Amino acid sequence: MITMLPIMSFMIRSLVKSRGRTLHYLFIAVAVIFASVVVSCAKSPKKIGAEILPENSKLQVYWTDTTTVYAYSELVDSIRSDELSLNYLGSMTDPVFGSTIAGIYTQFTLSSLGHDFGPNPQLDSLILYLTYTGYLGDTNATLVTHTYELEEGMELDNEYYSNLVLQHGSSDYLNYAFNPRPNDSTTVIDSTAGDTTQIGAVQRFDLGTYNPSLGNKLLSADTSIMSNTTDFRNFFKGLYIITEQTQEDGILLRFDLTDRKSGLTLYYKNDTVDSLSFGYTVSPVIPRVSRYEHNYFSAESDFKTQVLNGDTTLGSKIFYTQGLAGVKGIIKFPFLRDWARNGKIGLNEAKLIFTGFEEDPYNGAPGSLLVVKATEDGSYEIIEDQYEGAHYYDGVYKSNTNEYVFRITNHLQSLISDTSQTDYGLQLFVNASSINPKRFIFNGDQPLNDTVKPFRLEMIYTDFSEH
Prior knowledge:
9 helices; alpha+beta; Jelly Rolls; single chain; 16% helix
């Protein structure tokens, strides 16, 4: 670039001597020459310094999928299930996992305070309304439902789990067999406005015909009970709603108890007026708990041997996960610390890849899974990689490959860099397990069919100890 300066100087002197040229052209000429000089001297950033670096000083990046990782499955003890946004009711029988029954404990509150039922109130009916928000299973299934009055109350500030057992009365107010209609809509006619409205599907349970005792009890509440929510909840502690186990297929119905169309409605008359009604609602601050029961004795034998009897070696072929406090996966890295002993390793990327055993997952695959870090006391906590964001952490089902992929780079790098940490492994759950009934079956690290992709750990890393 220095050798170009005399040429630039000569051109400038020539331009100045030329009377027909202006200073404007002078600046243009200089700019063009300077730009061409800079461009001719520029190098690709990738090549800068390459000719002065010795060949053995360049960092090498490696890829591997041979690091030992294995998994197996075990039962989930329980999961917190109080004040959920949605509640499941029903029963389903899975050909691999056995049967699941979902029930609901719920309290109610007064729709208005100080209500008076009037002189000599008489029961017409007591209807429980539950607003559908979805389902999993066969809508042709028949469910037999039972409803009991709770004898034990719940407190909003308490934590309740899916294996909760509350005392309830022996009187059944329902004993009702029905075919669910979660896809139906309801027509409401507004006689005042003269129009109709279509609203979402609502399941209707008559608690007054089979056994009118509860309806008559509610009618007997005096004005002092009807004027205070605490007194009312002591008077009526709520309902336990449950279904019988289905023998084939079945269905799990998803309801929103806090929806304005859900609740109890007492229909009655008195000596003065016919066709009266009063409502009891479930607000977001009213205690309610989902209860889940799993019966695995009708499950496949390999499932029972691994999950119930604890034969973890079967996880090398196949393992499982299931929502609604069912089954979780356990992931172990037995030789991870060998990486630390081999030298200074920097992980560029580490991915856990879970491959599906079933080509067409039963009742559809869960939308996403959750990988968390196991702790010494058997609980778990979020791994570092989840803080990088959902797009990085991933765990979303990939239908084109029938896989789930998780990036766990930070978690593994921490274990390799600090060998004083105790590695208790990872745990695998269906995401939003408290309200997600789906399940999934995975290939193990040595699958039954050697033509399919195994469960594996893929890593891209740099070995700094080579320099």
